[in-house]
Structures are given as C-alpha cells and as structure tokens.
Amino acid sequence: MATANLQFLQNPFPRPTFSSKYLVMRAPKMVFKCGCSSSSSVGGDAFSLTSSSKCDVDYLGESTKGDLNINLKHLENFGLDGQATLEGPIEQVARLEAEEAGSLLRDLGIPSPSAARLSPRGMFCTRTLNLRSISAIGYDMDYTLIHYNVMAWEGRAYDYCMENLKSMGFPVEGLAFDPDLVIRGLVIDKEKGNLVKADRFGYVKRALHGTKMLSTRAVSEMYGRELVDLRKESQWEFLNTLFSVSEAVAYMQMVDRLDDGVIPADLGPLDYKGLYKAVGKALFRAHVEGQLKSEIMSKPELFVEPDPELPLALLDQKEAGKKLLLITNSDYHYTDKMMQHSFNRFLPNDMGWRDLFDMVIVSARKPEFFQMSHPLYEVVTGEGLMRPCFKTHTGGLYSGGSAQMVENSLNIHGDEILYVGDHIYTDVSQSKVHLRWRTALICRELEEEYKALIHSRGPRATVVELINQKEVVGDLFNQLRLALQRRTKGRPAQTLAATNMDDRELTESMQKLLIVMQRLDEKIAPLLEADGELFNKREPTG
Questions:
Q1: What is the rounded distance in angstroms from the CA atom of residue 293 to the CA atom of residue 156?
Q2: What backbone torsions phi and psi does residue 533 show, to the nearest 5 degrees?
Q3: Is 140 a catalytic site residue?
C-alpha cells in the first residue's frame, strides 16, 4: 500500500503531499503495534493475550485488549528470569536486543523491517493505527486487491469512449490515450474546460486548459478569488479513482477540439459543460453495454498485474485472527473471475480465494452501502443464482445489503473495522463519516514518486541548506533595512548605535546582503526545477 503524486500539478518543494477534505497522506513512519489475536499462533504457552475483561488504557489512550504478554511460568520452566536477564539501562538493553534480533533475521534470510521504511510499497499514516484493536479488515477489489495495468485497462476504456464519440459525430481522429496527462486528486472545472490542482484550502495552484498548461499568471487571473468547492457538483468533478483517468483524458483532448472549432455545428451549441456530459455519456455506454468487462474477463492476463505476495499477506492476517471481508461494487461473475485469476494460484494447499474471507459482498452499491440499507441476497450457485436473505453466516457470499448488516452479523462495530480501498470518496470518506470505520487508501501512483524522493535526498538536502542560508541573510538584511527606514523618516532606529551609524556603512552592508540573496536565488532556482522534474516533466508556460 502506498500513499498520489500529482504529476504535472505537483508542488515540487517542499515534500509532496496528497490532500483531500478527509485525508492527508504523507510519509511518516507507520506506528504499528502487535496485531496478534491468538496466543497459539505466536508461541503456544510462551505468551498470553490481555482479555477484554482485564484490559486497561495505555499511555496513548488506546485499549490494551489483545496485548501480548509474557507467560512468566513458561520462563521459570526454562530457568529464566525476565527482569534479571534484561538488567541494565533500558536504552542500552533495547539497542543490544535489537542488534541480536536483527542478526537473527539476517541469518534466517528475512529482510529487516527497517528496510520497509525506504520502500515505495510501504504503509504511511496520519495517526496511530493500533492493529490489536482491529477485529475485521474489509477490502475493496478493483485497484485494491486487483491491480490493473492502467495503460491496458484505461486505454481500452478510452478506446471504447472514443468509438462511441465518433458514432455520435465527434472528431476523434489522431487522438491517443495519454495516461501521463491525468492523475487522481485533480479536479475538472466543467465550466472552463480546465483540469486543476487545488491545495487543501481550495486555492488553485496549477491548471491545464485542454491539454495545455496555463501560466502561473493565467491561473492567478482566472482563479485568484475562486475556491474549488466540491459541493458545487455542477462545476467541479473530483477525480477519485483510477477509473476516472480515461474519461478525464478524453475530455481534455476534446476541449482542444472544441477550442479549435472543429466539432460539427449539427451537434448543437456546445460549451465545456455540455462537452463533459457528452464524453461521460460515451464512456458510460461502454460500461453499461458490458463491452469492456467482457473483454477483460476473456483475457485477464492482458489487463491484470497479479501480486504473488498479496494473497499470502491476507492469509497471514486471517491466521492472526482477523476477520476478512471483501466488499466490492463489481458483480459476482466479474469478481469471481478476477479473484480466481489473481489469487488462487498463489494460495497453498488447494485453497481458493473464497477461503480467505469470512464474508464476501458483491454489487454492494457503495457509497450507499455505507449510508443506507438495501435488500440482501445470497449467491447460492456458481452461475450466480440468488435468493433473498435476512441473516448472514461465516463464509457466505452475498449481493447488496449494507454495512450495518455486516456489523450486526459479525458483532463488530465502528473503529474495530479497518476498510481498505482505492476510491477517496466511496471507500475512504463514507465508511469513516457514517460508520467511524478506520480507513486505508491504496494509492499506487506514489510508488515512483517515493523512489524519486529517496534518490533525491542529497540534492534536496543541499536545497534546504541554501534556503536556510538565505533565511539567515534575509533576516539580517531586514533588520538593517528597518534601521534605514526609521532613520530616513527621522525616527530613531532599534538601538542608539544603529541610529548614529554612518549612512554609507549601513547602505553598503545592505547592498552586499542583497547581492548574496540574489546569488543564492540563482543557485536555488535550477535545483528546485530539477527536483520538480523528478516527479513531472510538465511545467507552466511563461
């Protein structure tokens, strides 16, 4: 799991962040605590777990339910005393024991956990996630458990969209899918035909009109007093998911065609908002008619990038006592085909993907799944035959229903459930807002950016040092400037010595400092530009 670079709209410095109204994902170290749920899985009689009847609250305000404890009687049987064995200053003991455990891992050929801190396939958080308090982990499927080749999947969606636009009379000749044009987290301005990057406060920082980058001046003149308000759905369209990429690319390219005046007049007087509706309609047809999913199901190897480690990671979670849920908007046939292709071959002992999950819900209709109740059906045959259902059972396969039904069935509620998905609004926002579930966002786009961040640590340190030098020089310059300003206005400066200082000496010092700052700027600017190009080659025009 990873947290999205913003491609051409990325603020190149300081460290990139991905922000939304409900989520700000950066890259600090993940705070993890033991998530084991059964002592038998971690050493038999050697350990015990804190039960719900004996739990307390720790220094973080978290319940100690599920804490792993040493069984002292087990130590005594081996003639060991836990305290005596680990005597000495705890800082020194911790260092020595960590070195010994690290040596053991190396001997076993197991990668050190510290290596994961520099891995782009890491886990990043904005608050402590205590896995011992998590009883169930729910997963979305598309772009979460199943990762598609974006060029292949979204490229085919784009192709179908363009075919439908052509049948509607739009000029699409010469256009090709460009996945580098768009990324999640950006916002379409349907009134102006722009694609914008807004900061967490809603101010537009960069923008494209069609496929052309707007200059900083043009962005300021166009959006200087206007904030992006996602509640105004008639104007703004937030790109929540990778499924938005094909639609956004097609729209931005068609904006160019509209500006060029090559869209036939018989399609009616089109503005940018009307053009967006036309593109959306063309892509919707491809999904509704089932063309795209039928093609993917027939040749999943062309569209899916299986991860051999993923099914085993879920198996580890299940064996640690976590209840696993699959909650997807995809239908049963598509879900079964994709999961079989991506999971079954990597599971041991003839296990199938269904064996991993305590409950599977297809056609969930998120986000409504988290907001209200829908009829629940049980899928009872391999052909997808369903019957009405009012009570769920472990290992069941269902269609529809609601999150409330899941909670009641498992007798697990609120922040005892962690839900993992790729859709910023449907998966992450709504499950948290309505149910207080803990959430994790899959954001694979950041993998390449994180690699760039690691590789550019040296140059970035140089930039930070230069900026710090400029700040020191700037503070000195400002104090001298203030003294000169007060003297010029016939008022005393900050001190008597500054008031009586020779004008020439004061001015000369200021001139030297100003030259230093200008030279520092000349050195900082190209370094910042090079740093920004690590994440995106597109830059604003002049």
A1: 10
A2: -70, -15
A3: yes
Q: Given a cut of 80, is residue 526 above it in pLDDT?
A: yes
SS3 for 360? strand
Paired residues of 204 in beta bridges? 198
Q: Which CATH class is domain 136-146+305-442?
A: alpha beta
Alpha carbons within 13 angstroms on the beta-carbon side of residue 133 total 20
In the numeric block, which tokens belong to residue 346? 């990597």
Closest CA to 3 of 431, 419, 445: 445
Q: Is 142 a catalytic residue?
A: yes
Separation between Cα atoms, residue 479 and residue 462, nearest integer Å: 26
| 442 closest CA partner among 117, 153, 25, 9 | 25
Judged by DSSP in three states, 415 sits in helix
67, 140, 336, 422: the catalytic one is 140
Residue range 348-368, pLDDT digits in tens: 999 999 999 999 999 999 999
Task: Choose, from 56, 81, 142, 358, the residue flagged as catalytic.
Answer: 142
Name the pTM for this structure.
0.79
CB 392 within 8 A of CB 359: yes
- Tokens (6 digits) for 434: 């309505």
- Residue 360 pairs in a beta bridge with 326, 397
509 neighbors 480 (Cβ within 8 angstroms): yes
Q: Which helix (H) or strand (E) holds 525?
A: helix 503-533
User: What are the backbone angles phi and psi of residue 126, rounded to the nearest 5°?
Assistant: -110, -5
Confidence at residue 76, expressed as pLDDT on a 0 to 100 scale: 67
